[in-house]
Amino acid sequence: MLTPRFDIKLGDLIVTFPLLMFLLGMAVFFTVEHEVKTSGAPATFTMLFVFVLVVRNNSVLLALTGIPFERALFYHKLLSYATIVLTVVHAYAYYAAPDEHVQTADEDMDFKLLTGYVAFVALVVLCLLSVNKIRRRFFEFFLRTHWILFIVAVVFASLHGAPYILVGVIPWFVDMLYRLAIRTRKYSKGSLKPTEVSTGIVARDQVSVHTLPGDITLIQFPRVRKDTGDAFEYEAG
Q1: Which of 32, 44, 59, 115 could join 160 via S-S bond, C-beta 3.0 to 4.6 A?
Q2: What is the 3-state secondary structure (H, E, C) of 1-70?
Q3: 28 vs 224: CA distance, rounded Å
Q4: What sign results for the dihedral spanned by CA atoms 26, 10, 128, 179?
Q5: How far is CA 152 from CA 3, 65, 147, 168, 227, in A?
Q6: How many other CB atoms are found less than 10 A from the CB of residue 79?
Q7: Residue 172: what pLDDT?
Q8: Residue 215 DSSP label
């Protein structure tokens, strides 16, 4: 019942959710111990993987885990929500800790608070705009703000004291350059006048599709924009 309604698999109940509960337990433990700085480590960990999971050309991820891009998006959203929850715990750790346990000099505290607040607000707005009804109704607005808020969240979270999230950003950035540069140049070589008549193949000079029975393949037709397109899915029989 969980699979059709919430897209939750058995592996999520065995691995994913226990791992998230472990990270939440770590954050709560460090909060109780008044370890303010360390209480933010679980949020940094989940935020790192938020970016890794949106790499479209994730052949390494697919080979290591068997997770296709469509499933990786589910974990991308799940870890985004988890990051917000863990960040709230981290913020509470700061306000609940006595002054002598706050591991930051007074002159740096205002800067830490500002960068933390900005990064947190950016994450919350990102998640709100990602709700299905909002994203589908205002997709162009969602797309543009997602880029802007993503940059804001990364920059201010790094300044706040979580530079390790850049480890997750680097694979995404390399993938983005590949899609915008190499693949755009490749797809621009298509022709509307094929040398011979053929049926059943879209843009046969540009792409080839290989599927196995049961595979779900995403086909994307480029639009005027280089980073979006109209897409549909089909399942090989």
Answers
A1: 115
A2: CHHHHHCCCHHHHHHHHHHHHHHHHHHHHHHHCCCCCHHHHHHHHHHHHHHHCCCCCCHHHHHHHCCCHH
A3: 48
A4: positive
A5: 34, 30, 9, 15, 20
A6: 23
A7: 77
A8: -
Q: Which amino acid, one-letter code, is at 178? A: Y
Q: Nearest 5 degrees, angle CA 119-CA 229-CA 47? A: 25
What's the pLDDT at 177? 77
Two structure tokens written together for 207: 């792409």
Give the distance, in angstroms, between the CA of residue 189 and the centroid of all CA atoms in the same chain. Answer: 31
**The two three-digit tokens of residue 60, written as one number:** 């390494």
Residue with tokens 């019942």: 1
pTM above 0.85, yes or no: no
> Which stretches of the chain score pLDDT less than 70?
1-6, 56-65, 99-107, 182-237
State how far Cα 71 lies from the chain centre. Answer: 12
Measuring CA to CA, which residue among 75, 43, 41 is closest to residue 58? 75
